[in-house]
Amino acid sequence: MGSDSFINDVIWGLSDPQKHLPSKYFYDEKGSRIFQEIMQMDEYYLPGCEREILYKQSQQIANEINHEEFDIIELGAGDGSKTLIFLEAVVNIGKKITYIPMDISEEILKVNRQHILERLPDLSVEVLPGDYFSTIRAIESRPKPRLVMFMGSNIGNFPGEKAIEFIRFVNDYLNPGDYFLMGVDLKKNPHVIRAAYNDKKGITKRFNLNLLERINRELKGDFNLKAFEHYGVYNPLSGAALSFLVSMQEQDIHIADHTFHFDQYETIHTEVSQKYSLKELDQLAIKTGFSWDRHFTDSRGYYSLSLFKK
Ligand code: AVI
C-alpha cells in the first residue's frame, strides 16, 4: 500500500459526485491505535461476542473439521490473541496443525508468533506478511488440507458484491474438503448496531476523522477537522451500517495540486459495515462455491463464526 495508490484513491474518491474514501486507509499507526480503543468500547459488542464463541465452541468447530493434519491460514491475523483460544482447542483434541498468520504489518506478526508460542511452544507457526490478495496465493503450493480463517467481521467492510468476490477468491485457493471460517456480525436490533458506530465518548468520531488527518499528514492536505462531523447510520433494509464525514460548511480543500469543493452538509462516505442474517450467510456460502455451512453463534445471537466447507 504505497502512498502512490493512497493519493490516487483519495483523488479518485473525492472527485466522485458522491465523495467517498476507502476504509482500508483508516489503519495507519494512529488509526490502528484508535481501533484498539474501539474494541474496548462498551457499545462495540463485536469482539466480546467473537471471544465468547471461541471460548465456548472452539472444540465443536474443531471437531467439524474432517482432517487430522492441516494448515490454518489466518487472513489479517493481527496479534492472534483471540485465535489462540481456537488453536489451543484444536491442539487439545489431538489434531496436528501448522498456523500461518498473514497480515500487512510485519511488526504485528512478530507479536503474534511470540504470543502463540508462549502458550503453544510446540506449534509450528509460519508468518506471512503482505496483503490478502498477494499472500493467499502463497498457500497454493502447500500440500496439506486447509482451514482459512477471516475473523473480526472484516468481511463486513467489503461493500456489496465485493464481499462475494472476495469469498470466491478465497474459495479458488481451496481444494474440495477444505474449510473457511469467517467472523460475521449479524442483523439484530438496529439500536444496538447504531450505538456501536456512534459511541458516547466520540472514539468512532476520532477514528473517522483520522482519515482526513492522515490525508493532511501524508498528502499535505489542508482539511480543517473542526469543519467536519462524524455521522454513523444503520439501514435495516440493506443491513449496512454506513459512516460519513459531513462538511458543516461550504469549503474548498486542497490536496497536492487538486482543489475539492464541498457544499455545506455534503458528505464523504468512508465505510460500510455490512450485517448479515444466517439465511443470507447460507445463500452466500452457495453463491461463493461452498457445499456445506454451519453457524456458531453467541448467547445473544449477535454474531456468528460461520464455517463453510468446499
Ligand atoms: C474492522 N471492522 C470490522 C470494523 C467494523 O465494525 O466495521 C471497523 C470499525 N469501524 C467503526 N468501528 C469499527
TrEMBL record:
Alphabetically ordered keywords of this record: Methyltransferase, Transferase
GO biological processes: methylation
Residues covered by the Histidine-specific methyltransferase SAM-dependent domain: 8-309
One Gene Ontology MF term: methyltransferase activity
Matching Pfam families: Methyltransf_33
UniProt-listed InterPro entries: EgtD, EgtD_Methyltrsf_superfamily, MeTrfase_dom, MeTrfase_EgtD-like, SAM-dependent_MTases_sf
Signal peptide: none
Keyword Iron: no
The protein's name in its UniProt record: Dimethylhistidine N-methyltransferase
